[in-house]
Amino acid sequence: QLQLVESGGGLVQPGGSLRLSCAASGFTLEYYAIGWFRQAPGKEREGVSCIRHNAGRTNYADSVKGRFTISRDNAKNTVYLQMNSLKPEDTAVYYCARYRNSWCFLEDGLKDIDYWGKGTLVTVSS
Prior knowledge:
Blueprint: E1 3-7, E2 10-12, E3 18-25, E4 34-39, E5 46-51, E6 58-60, E7 68-73, E8 78-83, E9 92-99, E10 113-116, E11 120-124
Parallel strand pairs: 2-11
Antiparallel strand pairs: 1-3, 3-8, 4-5, 4-9, 5-6, 7-8, 9-10, 9-11
C-alpha cells in the first residue's frame, strides 16, 4: 500500500528551526519527484518546495527561498524539509506529495500530484 507519512512538526518560536521528514513506502521513491506543500487556516494549499527524482534540481516558493532546504535520501525512502528562520506566517499544515513524474515545477500547482500524505502541523509562535 502506497503511503507518505510526514513527521517533525510542532511548536517553535520565531527564528527557530524544524526539520520535517516524509517517509515513503509502497513504491520506489527514486523514480518520482516529491513536493512539500502547506495550507494555513482559511487559505489555499500552496507549493513550498519540490525535488526531482535524483535530487538534481529543486524548486522553492519565493516566500521560503534562503530559509528552507529540501533534500532526499532515496536509500532511506525519505524526503526532508529543513526549515530555518521560521516566521509566524509559516504556520500551516505541511504535506508531502508525490508527483506523477520524475520532475517537478511548483508553478504547475497541484495538477501533477497523485498521492498526498496526511500532513504535519507547524506552528510558529512566541
